[in-house]
Each structure stands twice: as C-alpha cells, then as structure tokens.
Write a structure and sequence with these properties.
alpha/beta, 6-stranded parallel sheet, 4-stranded parallel sheet, 15 helices, globular
C-alpha cells in the first residue's frame, strides 16, 4: 500500500487544484513489535493519531484501514478499495481448498463495513466496484472506477540484457519452456494448480519445462507439493525482485500462469501483457476485465485446459503474436496518469457536495 500511495502521489503532481501529502504515523514501525501490540496500534493508536490530522480532504489509500473512518470525517474522506476478498469469503461467495473459513474472515469483514461511512470509494476495477455495491450496500453515486496504473518500466524495453542472459544469471535453463508466476503464496493465488499445470506440461512437452517464481519464497506447504509432484529440479524460486528485475523476468519467460481464485485487479497479469508476455489465467475476479479477451482464461482448477493452451502458444508463432498484440493493446489503458486524473475528479466531486 505504501507503493500504491507513492505512485498515486506522483500521479497527482501538477494536477490543478490538488496538493496531496502523505502522512504516516511514526509509532509502531519497529521490527520487534508483537502481534497484540500491532493490533493495538492499528485499531486504537492509529485511529487516535488520525484525529490530529488536518486537511480539506482525506484519502485512506488502503481500504484495510477502514477503522480510520472512526476518526476521520466521513463527508470529507475518500478511500481506495483494492478488493473485498475477506468479505467475499465471510459471505460464502469465495470458497476453495486452503481458504480461511468464513468465521476466520468475519472480523476483517466487519471492520470493512466502516467503508460505508466514506464520502467516496475509488474502486480499482469494475469487479471491486460491484463488490462494494453488492457486499457493502454502498450507493452507486459514491463509487468511482479508477484502474491501477502500470509502470512504464513494463512497457519499455528491458535494457541491453537479453532474455538468455537473464536466464543464465538466475540459473534458469535457456532452452526449456519457462512458465512464470509472480506474487504471494496466499491460498487464493492457487499455486497447487500452478504446480499441476507444470507437471502436466512436463509429461506432454517435447522439451524441458521450468517454473520461475517471483515474489514470496515458497513455504513448507509449497515445498511439500513440489516434492510430491517431483518438480524439485524444475523450479527456480527467485524471491522478491525489484520492478526492473521483475520486468526482465517477464521478458525472459514464455508465459505468465495465473490461476487465481479471486483478484481485485491483478497487477502481474497487466504487467505481463504490457511486457509482451502471453497470459494464461483463471476466469475469476477482475482478471477477465484486465485481459479483455477470454481465449486464454479457464476455471481455476482446469489443469488440462491451461496446459493445453500453453502448448498451443509455444507451438504457434501466429497465436503467440496475436496474444502479445492483444495484451499490449489492453495494457495501454492502465496508466498512472489516467488513475491520477480519475482520483482528482473524485476529489472534486466530493468537495462540491460539502463546499
């Protein structure tokens, strides 16, 4: 959320009538803070601290801090909502293996009810906008659509390093089919299907197959699945990378595989498309509206369908070129300039209502 806030501030620079400044509490950032202390800070001290802030308009850039609306004036507060996954689970709309139970998500879902107090909600996808309306009952005239922006790093050439050089530097085989996944290990990211697709590709592909993971390092659960499927030699876990290195990773891999169960937007899919990397993904959440075509979207657990589509992509230059062109065209609309302009218009709308 700090990254989103920084990108938003840059996007708002130079927009007439808007002077934006980020405020962060100085307390509670030490690494030694325990679990109970963190909760006390977030739900009590953070709220108290917000009462000391001054401004014509307030913007909570993380909907997960909906409790701040206990202190901030609702009529002068805007909130960016990135997704309502906890509410979807608590209401029984999102169910799949590994997901936290409905009761486990209920406290978070209840806290998110405070979003109803905000003067306006900036939804980063139509999917999220509809969830705000259907799950929280927020009126349509207080909901505004403003998709994320994608950094120019992903649209522009990746420098002088070739894909082959990137692969060698990260010990990725140069010849085999390379499948990429970018993100966390949250159960909704559906890594079990990722592993299943890679295992299916290894059986059907005439050349080797390698899975490259960028993001949270694999944990015990993922390690067990990898061992069970015999994929130890086919995995390259790169961990978190900088934006520049992540952009190079997109360019060095053959396809992004993203069978997620729920997404409020899905930046990796948009970044891959901007980078010219074909995407094979699930048909859930906001992914279809980001991709804007359904030929490479499947049910989240359709291992055979995804594996077959990946093979079609690597075996047909025409299909690959078509998907690359479609992806780049779709990704062009996801700019921080557009996001900043949309958010500034939300500010103006809110101010007109109480000025």
């Amino acid at each position: 959320m700090q990254l989103y806030t920084a990108d938003l501030l840059k996007a708002l620079e130079g927009i007439p009538g808007v002077v934006a400044q980020a405020q962060w509490p100085a307390f509670g950032q030490e690494a030694s803070v325990g679990k109970f202390r963190k909760r006390w800070i977030r739900h009590v001290e953070y709220v108290r601290w917000c009462r000391s802030l001054s401004g014509d308009l307030f913007h909570v850039t993380d909907h997960g801090n909906a409790q701040l609306l206990l202190a901030l004036p609702g009529t002068r507060t805007v909130v960016t909502c990135h997704d309502l996954y906890p509410v979807a689970v608590a209401l029984g709309h999102a169910r799949f293996a590994g997901a936290e139970g409905r009761w486990g998500m209920t406290p978070t879902a209840l806290r998110l009810q405070w979003l109803r107090k905000a003067a306006a909600i900036v939804a980063i996808s139509q999917q999220t906008l509809e969830e705000c309306r259907n799950f929280l009952g927020i009126a349509r005239d207080r909901l505004f659509l403003a998709p994320y922006g994608i950094s120019r790093i992903f649209h522009s050439p990746k420098g002088s390093e070739s894909p082959e050089s990137f692969r060698r530097r990260h010990n990725i085989p140069v010849e085999p089919l390379v499948v990429l996944h970018v993100g966390s290990n949250d159960p909704r990211k559906n890594l079990m299907t990722v592993f299943g697709v890679v295992a299916a590709l290894r059986e059907r592909c005439k050349k080797g197959v390698c899975l490259v993971k960028v993001g949270s390092p694999f944990g015990p659960l993922e390690a067990k699945a990898i061992k069970t499927l015999g994929l130890q030699e086919a995995i390259r876990d790169l961990g978190p990378l900088s934006a520049e290195e992540t952009a190079r990773a997109y360019g060095a891999c053959d396809v992004l595989l993203y069978p997620s169960f729920h997404e409020g937007f899905c930046r990796p899919v948009a970044e891959a498309m901007a980078s010219g990397t074909p995407v094979v993904a699930s048909n859930r959440g906001a992914i279809p509206e980001v991709v804007q075509h359904s030929s490479s979207l499947f049910e989240p657990e359709d291992v055979e369908g995804m594996a077959s589509r990946i093979l079609q992509i690597i075996e047909s230059d025409d299909l690959r070129d078509e998907l690359v062109q479609r992806g780049r065209l779709a990704a062009q609309k996801f700019t921080w300039e557009a996001h900043g302009a949309a958010v500034a218009e939300v500010y103006r709308t809110v101010v007109k209502r109480w000025a």
